[in-house]
Amino acid sequence: MQWLDRVTDNLITIRINGMIMDFWDILEILIIAILLYYILAWMKTTRAWALLKGVIVIGGFLIIAAFFKMNTILWIAQNVLGFAVTALIVVLQPEFRKALEELGNKKVWRNFVPFDLTGSDANQVSEATINEIVKACAEMGRAKTGALIVLEQKVSLKDFKATGIDVDAIVSSQLLINIFEHNTPLHDGAVIISGNRIAAATCYLHLSASTGLSKELGTRHRAGLGISEESDSLTVIVSEETGKISCAYEGELIRNISADDLRAYMHQILIKETGDSKKRIRIRDRKGRSKVRDEKHVSS
After folding, report:
1. DSSP 3-state assignment of 192?
2. Contact call for residues 147 and 137 (beta carbons, < 8 A)
3. Strand (E) positions, 12-158?
4. Regarding beta strands 147-151 and 190-194, do their DSSP bridges make them parallel or antiparallel, or are they unpaired?
5. Structural domains in the chain?
6. How far apart are CA 175 and CA 1, in angstroms?
């Protein structure tokens, strides 16, 4: 089989040229090794890991077939190989898309690029808006009114806003409670907040495909987690069954948090300050986030 002969020739070439490797060859090998490590680490968290094990089994079978010169099997494999690669790309399209989105996420490059390439603070949320959202969530939690509130950040949620009804109103606890009140026209779906204004209501979100979610969580929590996986938005969820508050951010769901924990968590993610005020907020937020994390471990 041609590909097996090429692999053998390359191994012989490496053995011959091994004594003349320079610094750049070693650096190139290290870079390839690191890339392979991260690719395998990524694959282990996706469906690609099971497919990789299947490919390894098939590869082992083909090596045995080549050793015993089973020419018919090798001919079939050689002609099917091109179609198989295309089929793998189609099957793993969601995983490839998610990997590219994570690669393009600015958080990956934050340590290498000392400035914000987007340069937009249009969706920055004020302290008053956070207080109104927390107040509304606390009230809806006590009344066991379900709610799904998405706070837009750098990544645009224009496509999701288009699925709902435009509101364009200043954020207030009374308005949020009224929107999610049972049997009102706007209660079904998500509210999307841009900056300090409610942009749209009754918006439809993609559900998370995560298999690690508890079976007791319903569509509202899956939708909140799903939008956090696709964007940098922060989602606040109030359970209709229990009245408990949860947060979803960067594909992570933190459950059963108090109003104070919610305020501290939103403050840490959404408020951008400078100088001494920023330092004070970080200290306060670190305590708030610690409480949130502890609560998460307890709930799980």
Report:
1. strand
2. yes
3. 147-151
4. parallel
5. 2-104 (no CATH), 127-299 (3.40.1700.10)
6. 70
Radius of gyration of the chain (CA): 26
pLDDT digits (tens, 9 = 90+) for 233-250: 999 999 999 999 999 998
Read off the pLDDT band of 190 (50, 70, 90).
Answer: very high
**Distance between CA atoms of residues 155 and 158, nearest Å:** 9
How far is the C-alpha of 142 from the C-alpha of 136, rounded, in Å? 10
CA distances (Å), origin 135, targets 142, 164, 175, 177, 295:
11, 24, 11, 10, 20
Could you please report the per-residue DSSP string of 143-164? HT--EEEEE--SS--HHHHTTS
187: tokens are: 């209660």
Which amino acid is located at 4 in the chain? L
Residue bearing the bigger pLDDT, 278 or 250 = 250
Residues of the chain by 3-state class (helix, strand, coil), percent to 5: 60, 15, 30
Best CA proximity match to 236, nearest among 146, 153, 142, 110? 146
Token pair of 82, please? 């091109």
Q: CA dist 115 to 23, 120, 265, Å?
A: 32, 12, 24
pLDDT at 163 over 90: yes
